[in-house]
Amino acid sequence: MIELVTGFSLRPGTSADIDAIVAVDHAATSYPWTRENFEREFHYQWSKINVLCRAEKIIGFMVYWIIADELQILNLAVHPQSQRHGGAKSLMAYALNEAQKAGCKQAILEVRVSNQPAIALYQAHRFKTSTLRKNYYQNGEDALVMSREM
Ligand SMILES: CC(C)(COP(=O)(O)OP(=O)(O)OC[C@H]1O[C@@H](n2cnc3c(N)ncnc32)[C@H](O)[C@@H]1OP(=O)(O)O)[C@@H](O)C(=O)NCCC(=O)NCCS
User: Fold this and answer.
1) pTM, two decimal places
2) pLDDT in tens, 72-100
């Protein structure tokens, strides 16, 4: 458990946290993962799931993979009632630091072109758009592939 100056804390998630993680994801986005998506991540040895808490209640999470020398960010959300308090910034900083320690050379993610808050978050962490994937999502929306050197 890491206590953050914002009053939040951060710890590795466990499968006992899935209900709370799913609830945050549903509250935060119109395109949430299924419960099965999260369950699967807990089975992958290379998948990391961190949860962000306030007073021990889960209010955010981040799912990422460290494979070979690459950090792949798969999912990240903060409950709307707790947004704009630096929660996502803390989750990003922690994952980037872990990736650096693991010897990663690159970080990569995909984001909906309409998702301005997330794009701003990633740009603030030095991610740049490398590719546009047309019609990438089920609703036909395009994805930006964003990446950065570590
Ligand atoms: C994107 C998201 C995780 C940001 O969480 P957050 O805890 O509010 O973010 P932070 O408070 O740590 O903000 C960090 C930076 O991100 C950017 N940012 C975050 N929300 C923003 C918004 N609504 N508009 C513009 N920039 C925003 C800013 O650069 C911000 O830094 P600043 O506050 O110093 O300006 C949150 O909006 C969310 O859960 N969205 C729905 C889920 C989602 O889209 N996930 C990404 C999938 S790819």
Assistant:
1) 0.96
2) 999 999 999 999 999 999 999 999 999 99
Which amino acid residue places its CA nearest to atom 37 of ligand 1?
Answer: 117
Please state, as a whole number, how many other Cβ atoms lie within 10 Å of the Cβ of residue 47.
Answer: 17
Distance CA 18, CA 124 (A): 29
Q: Is residue 3 part of a domain?
A: no
What is the domain extent for residue 19?
A: 8-149
Residues with CB under 6 A from ligand 1: 28-29, 76-78, 83-89, 111, 115-118, 120-121, 124
Domain count across the chain:
1
Tell me, yes or no, whether 75 lies in a domain. Answer: yes
In tens, the pLDDT along 42-82 reads: 999 999 999 999 998 999 999 999 999 999 999 999 999 99
Residue 107 is inside which H or E element, if any? strand 106-112
